[in-house]
Amino acid sequence: MILFTAPGGEAGCDISQIPCRVCSGPSSGFHFGALTCEGCKGFFRRTVLSNVRLECLGNNDCPITPANRNMCKSCRFQRCLAVGMSKTG
């Protein structure tokens, strides 16, 4: 269990009880500047390192959940950026 102090000063919160900002799964900590799960952390790192151009086959608004987060890499990466993930974070 990872404990942290919330911005409001509430100490001792189990970080896994706070959802990943990208897919809403259990988070594991702050990665690349955002509170995310291990899966989204690794996805972001691999995507940035591969420097590949991602394209959505839908309308660029695919739902990103723990169950379907691998369905659209483009929308998942855009969600990573939208929640504040950064190469320098």
UniProtKB/TrEMBL annotation:
<dbReference type="GO" id="GO:0004879">
    <property type="term" value="F:nuclear receptor activity"/>
</dbReference>
<keyword id="KW-0804">Transcription</keyword>
<protein>
    <submittedName>
        <fullName>Uncharacterized protein</fullName>
    </submittedName>
</protein>
<keyword id="KW-0675">Receptor</keyword>
<dbReference type="Pfam" id="PF00105">
    <property type="entry name" value="zf-C4"/>
</dbReference>
<keyword id="KW-0238">DNA-binding</keyword>
<keyword id="KW-0862">Zinc</keyword>
<dbReference type="InterPro" id="IPR013088">
    <property type="entry name" value="Znf_NHR/GATA"/>
</dbReference>
<dbReference type="InterPro" id="IPR001628">
    <property type="entry name" value="Znf_hrmn_rcpt"/>
</dbReference>
<dbReference type="GO" id="GO:0005634">
    <property type="term" value="C:nucleus"/>
</dbReference>
<dbReference type="GO" id="GO:0000978">
    <property type="term" value="F:RNA polymerase II cis-regulatory region sequence-specific DNA binding"/>
</dbReference>
<keyword id="KW-0863">Zinc-finger</keyword>
<keyword id="KW-0539">Nucleus</keyword>
<keyword id="KW-0805">Transcription regulation</keyword>
<keyword id="KW-0479">Metal-binding</keyword>
<dbReference type="GO" id="GO:0008270">
    <property type="term" value="F:zinc ion binding"/>
</dbReference>
